[in-house]
Amino acid sequence: MCLAIPGKVISIGTENALRIGRVQFGGITQPVSLDFVPEVVVGDYVMVHVGFAISQVNAEEAELTYIALEQMGLLQGELPSGEEAEETEERL
After folding, report:
1. Which of 1, 8, 24, 40 is 20 to 30 A removed from 79 (C-alpha atoms)?
2. Cα 62 from Cα 7, distance rounded (Å)
3. What gap in Å lies between CA 31 and CA 22, rounded to an integer?
4. How far is 76 from 61, CA to CA, in rounded Å?
5. Is residue 61 within 8 Å of 18, Cβ to Cβ?
6. Which Gene3D superfamilies has this protein been placed in (predicted)?
7. DSSP 88
8. What is the pLDDT of residues 6-64, one digit of tens each?
């Protein structure tokens, strides 16, 4: 199943000529490619699939989607644990 998870962009930078944002999903922060959503700025919400922000959403839609995914148990296994998130961050 393909699953996009909503998150909040908390910072934006570049790495190897790619636009990378730090996106917060609940209590986890992950690096995410923002190349598909060039209009996004810090504070915006995005839908993320396999490390790429694929669309921008408003805060209400992001919250409702996150709650629905959580209630259905679909977030389990989709977001890395804190340790896995740190390993991912170190690789970038």
Report:
1. 40
2. 7
3. 5
4. 20
5. no
6. 2.30.30.140
7. H
8. 999 999 999 999 999 999 987 899 999 999 999 999 999 999 999 999 999 999 999 99
> Residue 86: inside a domain, yes or no?
no
CA torsion through residues 53, 65, 89, 9, sign: positive
Is the Cβ–Cβ distance between 84 and 91 less than 8 Å? no
What is the dihedral angle through the alpha carbons of 33, 44, 55, 12, rounded to the nearest 10 degrees? -10
| pLDDT (0 to 100) of residue 90 | 42
Strand partners for 25: 28
Q: How far apart are CA 68 and CA 86, in angstroms?
A: 26
Asked whether 53 and 38 are in contact (CB, 8 A), the reply is: no
Domain residues for the domain of 21 are 5-76
Total structural domains within the chain: 1
